[in-house]
Structure formats: C-alpha cells, structure tokens
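Before drawing any conclusions, I looked closely at one protein, both as residues and as discrete backbone shape codes, quoted below without any editing:
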Amino acid sequence: MQDAGFVKQAFAGIAKRYVVTNHVLSLGVDVIWRWFTAKLVASYQPTWVLDLATGSGDLAQAIQKACPQAKVLGGDFSPPMMMEAQKRGFHHLIAADGLALPVQDAAFDVVTVAFGLRNMASWPKALQEMSRVLRPGGHLVVLDFSLPRLPLLRPMYVFYLEKVMPKLAGAITGQRAAFEYLCRSIESFPSGRDMEALMMANGFAEATSRPLSLGIATLYSARKAG
C-alpha cells in the first residue's frame, strides 16, 4: 500500500518541474511511450476517455490528438499538477481520487493511467473503481515503469534507480525525497504477468503486456470483464 498523503505532498512539490524532469530522466523516450499509448487507445475508437492521474495532461493531450472525435477528461487528486495541465493548454479536468471516482457507472469507453496506478493507495481497489466506470466491453490501458528482464540490463537499471535518478531529479526539482520514494515504488510495483494477473483478479479480462524500451516501461491493456 502507498502513503496517499505523502504522494499528494510529493507531487505538489515537484509539479512545476515534473515535465522537464521526466524528459531529462528518460532522455525524451517518455514522449514515445505516450505516443504508443495514444495509438492503442485510438484503435478502440472511443467516444469517452478518462485519463486518471493525468498530472500535467501530457497523455490526455496525446490521446486527444490521436482521437479527435473523442471527449477526453483528465482526473487527478493533486491541484498543483492540474494547474500545470491548464498551463499546458488542457482544461477538461476533474478532481478525482482513483479509489473513489466522482463518476457514474459505465460512463467511459476507455480508462487510461500513465505512471499513476503505482502511486495509488490500493492497486486492487483502484482497478475495481476503473472497471466500475467503464462500459461493458470497455478497455483499461496502463502505462508504467517496470524492471528490465535482461540479466545484464536489470542490475544496471536498478543501480540507476537507486543511486543516480534520485540525485539527478533532486538537483532539478529540489525534492530528492520525492524521487527516492518514486524510484523505490518502481521496484515494488508488479509488472508483466504479475500485473496481468492483478488486472484479471479485479474486474478485467484478456489482459496483455507490451514491454517498451527493453522493459524499462510496460504498456498494459485489458477489457472489462463480463
């Protein structure tokens, strides 16, 4: 379980430098990951999309560009992060806790969450809530960090997560503790088959996973069960 209070405080502290920090730490590859995610969402031809933990709105805007016919709504529980989304030109926002969404049942065709499920207080409850707001047959798309499976790459990446990334991100944002937490959360977050199983145990079927950039990130998709 994650500490929701700490997470909220952490994101408030890094909101203004969140986007540039992501680009620096990923060498810009996070833009490509979001493009793949938006392309997958577009393949479902949705009318209504909810992007949870929308943060600065990067994924929501990518989805809107890929799905010009769709109505894309961003939800986040951090007001400072939503202010950053507004500054970047995305205004379709609601204050939303992933464990208790202020949305009626079966309201959306697709729910997306990028780098956010990992930070929610209960992964099963969050997935169940996402299932609730999806229409029958609707799709969940999750993009998040994961640990590479290649034997040589994995230890090097873990070293980067534990020793390099917090120092570099701390230098950019002045919030090293926030990134120490975020890096630890990547190591404890289920990935691959484990995430597929978690999704299927909490309201979803046909869960799949696609490693990106040698497994540094993974794109998951599933259909609402029943």
Remarks:
- The chain has one domain: 4-224.
- The mean pLDDT is 89.
